């Protein structure tokens, strides 16, 4: 087990999750202290506010409970009022938010609010960013191709909140 500060968001996430995601959100909230949560970044990368509100649980992949070096999948938590700045990576990525209301940007476009259950695809090396509003995000992620445990290349600002 690896506890993180962001896990305090799981109770609210369980309240916000739609009916089809609620059992998973409740299970994560109940078992949060038994799972190996991780962070790719450190406080030096983005500051304490980001790190205290960010974490992931890799279910399978190079760091997952089930080892796989071709595909990684797990769950991402972002607390309220967090900006995950523009970044890109070799791995292709798919997100499915399990809570709604987070804004997502891809390429040079603007931010767009996405709802729970939408499929968000980021092709290899395409810049993308996310920002939460007043509520936290829980999202399923799937990565394939490229180095699955590598840090992303950050190209955006790390200022918290809305711009």
Distance between the termini: 36 Å
- In total, the number of strands is 11
**Mean of residue pLDDT values:** 90
Sheet with most strands = 6 strands, mixed
Q: Please state roughly what percent of the residues sit in beta strands, choosing from under 5%, 5-15%, 15-25%, 25-35%, 35-45% or over 45%.
A: 25-35%
Description:
The chain has 163 residues and is α+β, with helices and mostly antiparallel strands. The protein has one domain (5-154): Jelly Rolls (Sandwich), CATH 2.60.120. 15% of the residues lie in helices and 34% in strands. The protein has helices at residues 10-16, 22-31, 43-46, 48-51, and strands at residues 54-61, 66-67, 71-78, 83-88, 92-97, 102-106, 112-114, 120-122, 128-131, 137-144, 153-154. The strands form two sheets. It has a six-stranded mixed β-sheet with strand order 2-1-3-10-5-8, with no helix packed on it. A five-stranded antiparallel β-sheet has the order 7-6-9-4-11, with no helix packed on it. Helix 1 runs antiparallel to helix 2 (22-31). Mean pLDDT is 90; it is low at 159-163.
